[in-house]
Amino acid sequence: MTSRYQSFDDPAAAAPPGARPGAERLAALRRVLAQHGLSGFIVPRADEHQGEYVPAGEERLAWLTGFSGSAGTAVVLENEAAVVVDGRYVIQVREQIDTTLFAPVALAQTTPEQWIASHLPEGGALGYDPWLHTDGQVRRMEKAVAEARGTLVAVAENPLDAVWSNRPPQPRAPVRLHPLSVAGETAASKLARLRERLAQAKIDGLIVSDPHNIAWLFNIRGSDVPHTPIALGYALVPATERPTLFLAPDRFDEITASAVSQVADLAPAGTAPEGRPLGAREALAHAIAGLVARAGKAVCIQIDSATGAFALQHTVANAEARFHIADDPLTALKAVKNRREIEGARAAQRRDGTAVTRFLAWVAREAPSGKLTEIDVVEALEGFRRDTGLLVDISFPTIAGANENAALPHYRVTRAGNRPVTPGILLVDSGGQYVDGTTDITRTVAIGTPSPELRDRFTRVLKGHIAVATAVFPKGTSGTQIDPFARRPLWEAGLDFDHGTGHGVGSFLSVHEGPQRISRLGGVALEAGMILSNEPGYYREGHYGIRIENLLVVEDRQVPGADRPVLGFETITLAPIDRSLVAVSLLSDGERAWLNAYHDRVRNTLAAHVDDETRAWLASATAPL
Q1: How far is it, in rounded angstroms, from Cα 304 to Cα 450?
Q2: Where are the residues of the annotated region Disordered (predicted)?
Q3: CA distances from 14 to 18, 22, 81, 273 (A)
Q4: Which partner from 56, 77, 443, 492 sits 20 to 30 angstroms from 276, CA to CA?
């Protein structure tokens, strides 16, 4: 069995320092910087849409440094350089970069801005690409450079691109229609709701820079980046005119083009002075200028604070319009799923739960042999999902960590580091992309007989998971207020975990969707129809990791005697939780009843969809405690 959607190669991690990417590329970049009078340059792990996944041709940080994580920033100066990463990647970055060239820096100790302020030579000119940074990021960099008495310089062309030979081309994958049967709302209806928001805010036009929002608004999907079905581009939505979608028309088949053309114009439109077709950025500028000309008055264009490139401010200003930086209203609209999207999510979870249950039964059969490896686990799970016949992609690279690797919350197995599945713990965090829904599930299973410590820690994580799943709360409650529910059983033993308890999940879109989340930073109020993960964990570095993750739908609740509207959660993920890891004495009667009821539901829903051998295992795995 092989993986169709995930690679296990990581040449940088396996290579000795002298053979890793860095020396020649770094020297070439420094030569270009010197030619332009720059003392340094900032290389973020970002494209112009600030996406979690980016095309191969936008992986500048990985190309320059060898670091392949999903977040990080390099700062290159004349005589030194650093790569700043968050806590997920402090080990990985040291394995992948040449530390004789780049200093690995932990974000928890030093931010990129702090490193710049303390290392930029006095009076130095620090360059940045304004298409790769948001307004907030640029303001923080300006402050840092000012502390060093230097100058922040926006470059017209990214100097790294000038030295990147054989840079992969920009993606031009086909754009396809997302069926109304699963979208649940027409693009025309969504546009009407958006225009109401723009009118209330007195905004004349919105630049949609987040491709996820474009996909949702126009009911289209693409495949320009791994694991998330989006097409990279922009849209301009005037408050009173037809919107324009800046994706090349030749990427649309006849059916999709016809559907989109009912509500929007397709661009690029127009030509440059030399006669060539306008690129997306130029076409956007041309469209904004046309909107201003037709308005005959001062025009205010909104730019998204989270994904809008700083360069868009100049695009708007050059068209003699005003810009307003704020949250794209589409992000909040997209987060609240309609009836069809929720039905689709439930169907996707049933289908995915069947695949995961077959996988768990397979692990139970095969792991005792001692022959399984982490890669075997990843490939087998993908195979069970492919057997559904409806898998479009995995929703993120599968995390399959055995024992000490399970202690790394965002572990990715490579051929160089592939570990055998030996007695102890196996943690598997995975998900699938189906046309009717996006899934994300984590199961931690015992390999062999678990120790008392493992059972204690697992049960505390389970208690926190149940506390979130059964929470009832008034409307207006945010994820910040729910987050401690998951932590209290761990806190009582002097334990905790360092990631958030839950993130938003899209509808055949990003597995990590905002603005909703359950975390210390989750200040957005939860609303009925939002989908979130519930994934508390515990990690003992160098030994083991535990996480239990299901997806939840926020729903209205009727509480007798309540004097205000109340919300709760429906758990929609369906797969057994390892009973052998549960210390029953630590559970309350209510917690034990919840787990038994959940397992009854899992068994009753999935038993008819699995083979006889798996059905027998499922009956045992979901037996009452």
Answers
A1: 49
A2: 1-20
A3: 12, 15, 22, 50
A4: 56
What's the helix, strand, coil split of the chain in %, to 5?
Answer: 40, 20, 40
Residue range 546-558, pLDDT digits in tens: 999 999 999 999 9
Nearest by Cα to 299 from 275, 272, 317? 317
Residue written as tokens 């399959």? 400
The segment(s) of the chain belonging to CATH 3.40.350.10 are: 11-163, 176-334
Virtual torsion, Cα 307, 312, 317, 318, nearest 10 deg: -170
Do residues 439 and 344 touch, judged by C-beta distance below 8 A? no
pLDDT bucket at 312, cuts 50 / 70 / 90: very high
Eight-class DSSP state of 279: P
Sign of CA dihedral 442, 210, 347, 598: positive
Q: Report how far residue 60's alpha carbon sits from residue 33's, in angstroms, rounded to the nearest whole number.
A: 16
Which alpha helices (DSSP H) does 472-550 contain, by range?
Answer: 479-491
| Residue 272 scores a pLDDT above 60 | no
Q: Looking at this protein, which amino acid is placed at residue 402? A: A
Task: Give all strands of the β-sheet with 244-246 in edge-to-edge order.
Answer: 265-267, 244-246, 234-238, 205-208, 300-304, 322-326
Cα gap 500→229, rounded to integer Å: 25
Whether the CB-CB separation of 227 and 205 falls below 8 Å is answered with no
Strands 205-208 and 300-304: parallel
How far are the Cα atoms of 59, 66, 110, 398, 456 from residue 72, in angstroms, in the given order? 11, 12, 12, 20, 35
Domain with CATH 3.90.230.10 in the chain: 336-612
CA distance 149 to 122: 6
Rounded CA-CA distance 614/591 in Å is 26
Fold assignment, 11-163? Creatine Amidinohydrolase; Chain A, domain 1 (3.40.350)
| Strand pairing class (537-540; 550-557) | unpaired
- What the block records as the tokens of 200 is 């209330």
Cβ neighbours of residue 620 under 8 Å, at least 6 residues apart? none
List CB contacts of 330: < 8 A, sequence separation 6 or more. Answer: 194, 206, 208, 210, 213, 216, 217
In the CATH hierarchy, which fold is given to the domain comprising 336-612? Creatine Amidinohydrolase (3.90.230)
Separation between Cα atoms, residue 291 and residue 293, nearest integer Å: 5
The length of the chain, given as a count of residues: 625
- Residues 124 and 116: beta-carbon distance below 8 Å: no
Whole-model pTM over 0.90: yes
Tokens 């929703």 belong to which residue? 395
Query: Which CATH architecture does the domain made up of 176-334 adopt?
Result: 3-Layer(aba) Sandwich (3.40)
Tokens linked to 277: 């077709």
Residue 618 is encoded by which pair of tokens? 């499922």
